Amino acid sequence: MNGKRPLVLVVDDDEDFRAQMCAQLEAAGYDVTAAEGETAADALLAVTKPDLAVLDLMMERPDGGFALAYRLKKRYPDVPVIMVTGVTHETGLDFATATASDRAWIKADAMLVKPVRFEQLRRELERLLPQE
């Protein structure tokens, strides 16, 4: 990152969540770019390589975050992905990224359940982004 602020991509179809996440990340010292869904995120990823991505699981499609994470990792394999989702509360399904096998099919380096506390996100950012 060479002394510049890390760039975090935030993709979520919930405008309030996206705005809150962007404001908190900027206040914590990150540059932020955001998209409201897969299509907009794909357009951003065609011209920008983020240092880390925070992706919602369910957007235009119920599995949109998984598909977007797959495409992001295919284009930029070294970019960490944090998946955020409310699906656990809605369906009872629980996804994990604890093992290499989990991460192989989910394509996320961490999974956070909504509502996400910023302290949780900050811990994952510090774990996944290389330190200066």
Please give the count of helices. Answer: 6
CATH architecture verdict of the domain at 1-84: 3-Layer(aba) Sandwich
- Classified by CATH, the class of the domain at 1-84 is Alpha Beta
Helix content: 40-55%
Structural overview:
This protein is α/β, with parallel strands linked by helices. The chain has a domain at 1-84: Rossmann fold (3-Layer(aba) Sandwich), CATH 3.40.50. Helix content is 44%, strand content 18%. The chain contains six helices and five strands. It has helices spanning 15-27, 38-47, 64-75, 87-91, 100-106, 118-128, and strands spanning 7-11, 31-35, 52-56, 81-85, 110-113. Strands 2-1-3-4-5 form a five-stranded parallel β-sheet, sandwiched between helices. Helix 3 (64-75) links the parallel strand 3 (52-56) and strand 4.
Q: Could you give the topology of this structure?
A:
Elements: E1 7-11, H1 15-27, E2 31-35, H2 38-47, E3 52-56, H3 64-75, E4 81-85, H4 87-91, H5 100-106, E5 110-113, H6 118-128
Parallel strand pairs: 1-2, 1-3, 3-4, 4-5
